[in-house]
Amino acid sequence: MSVVAQGTWGWVLDARPLLDQTYSRCIRWTHGHNNNSVVQCSCKSHCLQTVQSHISEKCRNVSEGILNSSKQKKRKRKHTELNQGEIEMKAFHDKVRSIIQEGTLALVASAKASGIFISTEELTQGPVTFTECGLSGLCEMSKQLPLVDSVEQDTVTQTLEGGSTLNLDLFSRVTENKSDSAVVVTLLGEEYVIPAQSAFLLSDFTRVQPLVSYGAKFDLIVIDPPWENKSVKRSRRYNALPSSQLKKFPLPLLASSNCLVVTWVTNRPSHLRFLKDNLYPYWGVKVVAEWLWVKVTTSGQFVFPLDSEHKKPYEVLVLGRFSPVSRSQSGLSELASIENYRLIVSVPSTFHSQKPQLSEVLKPYIRPNAKCLELFARNLHPGWTSWGNEVLKFQHASYFIMTPEDDDAN
What InterPro entries does this protein's entry cite (predicted)? Predict the structure, then answer.
């Protein structure tokens, strides 16, 4: 369970229980099936400890308790006129501000008993290193390989089994772990932890055909596009994608009738406008709600001042239904109605652009045993299919602590 509290405002999520459950028992493959061993994997605690709020000390001294960043003095602008983007951003912020302020306060208070919010003195911080594997670079190199013939359906998938991973083609075949256990395997010369009943394709736009040929129709599609912005250009953390390029993605070929489509959007108004007025209609997706992910520290404060002129402590999720005119609308009455401006409150990962897992929150809005897909993924989830040019990034063994068990795998 990742939901530790919920109410009329939304939910408070804690990633740790879900991760502990997902990787509580892993089969570690070595050089052969007879040498496999059982290990317990847990995510390194540093990954889930955003301790320090980015609120100035002066503001913190003014604050009395949680979430009082609204009392801070605003920094004087060098100019008085706002550009169109700033006008739109301010209008949106003014519309959702009270919802975020009141809702987050109520949700954090209700989650206190769970122990998710603790003082910084209770946390153990220390140096920790992780391995960068250059997956996007490997995707570029893979373009020199011949494409899989989409007609040959038997070549579109491959299964992790038997302990042998040397001959796997990760770039033009969907790789599946069909077992009920997570597995630790060597891929591309590095160890990765692959969740149970998961599937993935490591590729970019030019090699997405194997995902289409996979033949699955998904009932939930979560999208985290690499939106263009100045911060990404400066940091070069990942390759951004022009908004217009998203139209080339064949989402209608992957979505089932009434598929729930959820897209993460930055706070740049042009991105939100493009998604709602251009991209979703182009795909045949009807907007049904906008939700807000509110990011707080381990002590329950906003990670940025709520009224900051530069960065906000929240991001937007736009929910829509894939509903072409030719498709039936039957079955929607059996699902819960989706309310607008619900909040998802959580302590963000310390790694850039890693989002909270939404399976439990979205469960009432999709059919039982739904097939789920994440696009532009950077990690995997049990029971899900994932696609992206860094789809294994946060599955690398360096993000986990592995503890051997006494008994051997069967």
Answer: DNA_methylase_N6_adenine_CS, MT-A70-like, SAM-dependent_MTases_sf
How much helix, strand and coil, in percent to the nearest 5, is found in the chain?
30, 25, 45
Q: Calculate Rg over the CA atoms of the chain.
A: 22
In terms of average pLDDT, the best of 46-50, 59-63, 90-94, 121-125 is: 90-94
Domain contains 75: no
Of 175, 209, 206, 208, the closest CA to residue 192 belongs to 175
Query: Which two three-digit tokens encode residue 403?
Result: 């503890």
- The domain containing residue 400 runs over which residues? 3-69+84-408
Number of structural domains in the chain: 1
- 373 forms beta bridges with 221, 385
Based on DSSP, count helices (H) and strands (E) in the chain, helices before strands: 9, 17
> Do 289 and 10 touch, CB atoms closer than 8 A?
no
pTM as predicted: 0.86
Domain assignment present for 209 = yes
Residue 374, classified by CB atoms within 10 Å of its CB into exposed (0-12), middle (13-18) or buried (19+), is buried
Question: Quick check: is 119 in a domain?
Answer: yes
Which residue carries 């108004």 as its tokens? 269
Residue closest to 27 by CA, chosen among 37, 14, 19: 37
Give per-residue burial for 255-294: e unless 16+ CB within 10 Å, then b.
bbbbbbbbbbbbebbebbebbbeebbeebbbebbbbbbbb
What pLDDT was estimated at residue 69? 47
- SS3 at position 333: helix
63: domain CATH number is 3.40.50.150
User: Is residue 282 domain-resident?
Assistant: yes
**How many Cβ atoms sit within 10 Å of the Cβ of residue 77?**
10
The contacts of residue 187 (CB under 8 Å, 6+ apart) are: 165, 168, 170, 392
Q: Which long-range contacts (C-beta less than 8 Å, at least 24 apart) are formed by 378-381? A: 378/224, 378/353, 378/354, 379/354, 380/194, 380/195, 380/198, 380/200, 381/22, 381/195, 381/198, 381/357
Q: 399 by DSSP, 3-state: which?
A: helix
| CA-based nearest residue to 370, from 397, 331, 320 | 331
